[in-house]
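Kindly go through the entry underneath: sequence plus fold tokens. Please state briefly how this chain folds according to its tokens.
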Amino acid sequence: MTPDLVYGRRAVREALRGQREVLEVWATERALKAEDWLQEAAPKRHLERELSERAGTRDHQGVLALVEPYRYADAYELAAAERPLLAVLDRVTDPRNLGAVARSAEGAGATGVIVPAHGSAVITPAVARASAGAIEHLAVAVVTNLARYLEEVKGADLWIYGAALGERAVSMWEADLSGGVALVFGAEGKGLRPLVRRTCDALISIPLTGEVESLNVSVAAAVLLYESKRQRA
């Protein structure tokens, strides 16, 4: 199988700490001087230009690695965990948003992140970079049909909340997020698809007192994931 590419100092460092086998690490002289942990991992110096050509971007911070392919989790096993906390993304195509959500989900101790197979970002080097390496310690699963998946896994032990605005949505301060919860987030400007929205047991909103009408999807995910973590404490 073709190895994955990971770039960015934090992303590569977490890859070295994670479960995937790291096959090779490249680093520039500047990165080696700045990061002590690179001395053993990357014994050979490379030029900035070499890394940019290999990564296809200049956003590598002087470090990149070849690692074994990312192993996706089983979405149904994640839902069957004891009191699961899932972040579910519907049509979130920006890899930076997926990476930021993954970082918050890992920090909040979430069971995992679920994304649809089509029309959504999946694990890429840009996602690994945006997550600051959090994907190396977090379960991410891909499902073919998101609405069907939610319909099949929801029940007394797993409540599905769709993040949305409007009068029908319950405030996060009033919602019970202490049990098994799947928090579903739609893309900015588009929101949840109608069928996914109808599959949710309830809609949940984040109270806003300023002038802006909504939050970035990754910020909204962080707020609700940590509110759930607070309620579970």
